[in-house]
Specification:
Elements (H helix, E strand, L loop, with lengths): L1 E4 L7 H34 L12 H22 L4 H15 L6 E4 L4 E3 L5 E3 L1 H37 L6 H37 L9 H8 L1 H4 L2 H6 L1 H11 L11 H12 L5 H30 L7 H22 L2 E6 L1 E7 L7 H34 L12 H22 L4 H15 L6 E7 L1 E3 L5 E3 L1 H37 L6 H37 L3 E3 L3 H8 L1 H4 L2 H6 L1 H14 L3 H13 L8
Antiparallel strand pairs: 1-2, 3-4, 5-6, 5-10, 6-7, 8-9
Helix pairs in contact: 1-2, 1-4, 1-5, 2-4, 4-5, 5-6, 9-10, 11-12, 11-18, 11-21, 12-13, 13-14, 13-16, 13-17, 14-16, 16-17, 17-18, 21-22
């Protein structure tokens, strides 16, 4: 359900209910707005006659599409998901425990999917299930339109860029910029709206609603309208140049010495394809330094502020922090560029700014591959530990002795496998070097001879249209995918089992102390956030990257965005521990309060108290 507090609003309750349904409508209309924009881009690129419908009064018909889908969501929410006495009583205790307010202080829209009877049978709530099905169908329809138009549009843009058509270079570049900005904009609501809501519903389907911790979902959704406009500023060159020019105007309210403005100008200039290597040379040391500071602080908190209930898990936390620092430092030294063209995927390392031999650079590149491949297996070991701890399994003792080293060898072995596969099966060769020579030169303004690389080509398309598979690279890619998939399988299995046990632990008065239960819950949720970060910043982009390669649509110079996204992982990943794990949070904000740095510190400390979900973390 979506709760709206009625105590702080000078509006009648029916009006609050209507505004809540409008909020539902705004959420439901989001993807259809982008569907219309993708249709427009497709018509522009194909020069379809239907483009004229956007240049007349018929434009209002196109704009009516998201309005109608939003209205459908709104009406479904209002008439099929409105408050009722049964649902109010079901949610009463949980809302009081989570927010310390009675449900009468809220207006809500939502529903229950099913009830479990005493005999174990299910009583389905068809009204709410039908509403969910209708809403999902509306969103899926928009997604289908987006995917179809995006694939067609991208293929046509690639063809246009690779041919000497009558379209000017300026027009080609602008079409490409608008398309890439639109792709970035659709990814943002996908990450901040659709994926969390989907996970939310899946947990409900399995009778594992996350209660007060649902507040994190609300917080994540609020970021969408803030972040979504940003790709337009950076990717669309006329807008980017306009901001830079205006920044030097006397009318500009921002100081030219503003660090935020200076950083924007620098990044904007660097995002030109040929300067991306210089941009990464600037950004990688910053992310490495930030990772070092944050992880060093986290290690200090782990060593000095971890309660006894953490047991040997604190060694796993320290191991992860050290791994992330090494990952960031290696990135800062190598400055890897993930690059793709056609069906070819390689990781480039410049040799001009390195004082070591090419052989050593290649070995370090393979070590970078190994660190990437080991990431998920580290969290797999974390999830195994959490499951053993919550289930009180006797195997937990293996983490309290020398056998802990065997557990830590798991990510080492997975990383070594990735490293060996990269070095042995994905090394440079003359054919591949010549294949990417022109594209590397046009993208970075440097010869391929100035780089060392690891990678390969999936297949070649012969003149007669037949496909010539490159088995060596395909086998290496398949083995690497299997390694990551095995880690994900362990994470999902242990995650589901662990959550179910924690959920039961919270609902029963078993011998486990409230403090111990709270810590188990905090560590589990911190771990969930930590696995979500590399999934979003590493695995999802790389999967898209490989998917484009498989369809012969490597994104060439734009591959640099993948490199930048990957570099953010070791900076962001430690953060959930500071906010979710209470002993670290209290130590961090308590330190700020003692030093009385600013009023903002105390405000932030108050905010963290509000984020604390009382149903899961007792005082």
């Amino acid at each position: 359900m979506v709760l709206i507090s009625a105590t702080d609003k000078n509006l009648p309750r029916p009006f609050i209910l209507v505004l809540n349904s409008v909020y539902w409508g705004g959420f439901g209309a989001t993807q259809s707005v982008y569907a219309v924009r993708f249709i427009y881009r497709y018509y522009v690129v194909t020069k379809s006659k239907l483009l004229d419908t956007f240049n007349s009064w018929k434009l209002f018909l196109w704009l009516f599409a998201p309005i109608s889908t939003g209205a459908a969501w709104s009406l479904i929410g209002l008439f099929l998901c409105g408050p009722n006495r049964e649902l109010t009583e079901v949610a009463r205790k949980s809302i009081l425990d989570s927010f310390e307010e009675p449900i009468e202080n809220f207006e809500y829209l939502g529903g229950t999917m099913y009830d479990i009877r005493e005999d174990g049978s299910l009583a389905l709530h068809y009204e709410f299930l039908i509403s969910v099905a209708l809403m999902s169908a509306i969103v899926f329809l928009s997604f289908a339109v987006i995917i179809y138009c995006a694939v067609k549009c991208y293929s046509l843009i690639q063809t246009m860029m690779g041919s000497s058509s009558s379209i000017s270079a300026k027009s080609q570049a602008l079409q490409s910029q608008l398309f890439n900005a639109l792709v970035c904009q659709i990814i943002i609501p996908l990450i901040f709206l659709d994926m969390p809501i989907t996970l939310f519903f899946i947990l409900n389907l399995t009778n594992n609603g996350i209660r007060g911790n649902s507040g994190y979902l609300s917080l994540m959704i609020t970021f969408y309208p803030v972040i979504d406009p940003l790709p337009n500023f950076y990717i669309i060159k006329p807008y980017r140049n306009a901001i830079i020019i205006y920044s030097y105007s006397p009318k500009c309210p921002l100081s030219l010495c503003s660090p935020q403005l200076s950083l924007f100008i620098f990044c904007s200039r660097m995002l030109e394809g040929k300067d991306f290597h210089e941009f990464l040379s600037f950004s990688y040391p910053i992310t490495a330094g930030s990772s070092l500071v944050l992880n060093a602080l986290l290690i200090y908190l782990i060593v000095t502020k971890s309660p006894e209930e953490f047991g040997s898990y604190k060694y796993l936390l320290i191991f992860t922090s050290v791994f992330e620092v090494l990952y960031a430092v290696l990135e800062a030294y190598l400055i890897p560029i993930h690059f793709s063209v056609g069906t070819t995927d390689i990781v480039l390392i410049s040799v001009n700014d390195k004082s070591i031999s090419r052989t050593w650079i290649r070995i370090l590149n393979s070590a970078y591959w190994g660190e990437f491949g080991a990431t998920q297996s580290i969290y797999a070991v974390h999830f195994v530990y959490r499951y053993l701890a919550v289930s009180r399994n006797s195997l937990l003792e293996t983490f309290d002795s020398w056998k802990l080293i065997l557990w830590l060898l798991v990510p080492f072995s997975m990383g070594a496998a990735w490293s060996f596969l990269g070095l042995a099966l994905c090394g440079p060769n003359g054919e591949l070097t010549e294949l990417v020579r022109k594209s590397v030169m046009s993208s970075f303004g440097e010869s391929i001879d100035n780089f060392e690389y690891l990678g390969g080509t999936m297949y070649d398309i012969k003149k007669d249209g037949s496909i010539d598979l490159h088995y060596k690279f395909l086998i290496s890619a398949a083995l690497m995918v299997n390694i990551v998939s095995a880690s994900f399988a362990i994470i999902i299995y242990c995650g589901v089992k662990c959550y179910s046990l924690i959920y039961k632990m919270m609902d029963t008065s078993i011998t486990v102390s409230p403090k111990s239960r709270a810590i188990q819950s905090q560590l589990f949720y911190a771990l969930l956030f930590q696995i979500a970060i590399p999934t979003v910043l590493l695995d999802v982009p790389l999967t898209i990257f490989f998917g484009l390669n498989m369809t012969n649509n490597g994104i060439e110079g734009y591959s640099g965005y993948l490199s930048f996204a990957i570099s953010l992982y070791p900076v962001i990943d430690p953060l959930p521990n500071f906010f979710v794990i209470r002993p670290y949070r209290r130590a961090l904000f308590g330190c700020c309060s003692k030093k009385k740095v600013t009023d903002g510190a105390s405000t932030f400390a108050n905010s963290e108290v509000q984020l604390e979900m009382r149903s899961q973390i007792p005082n």
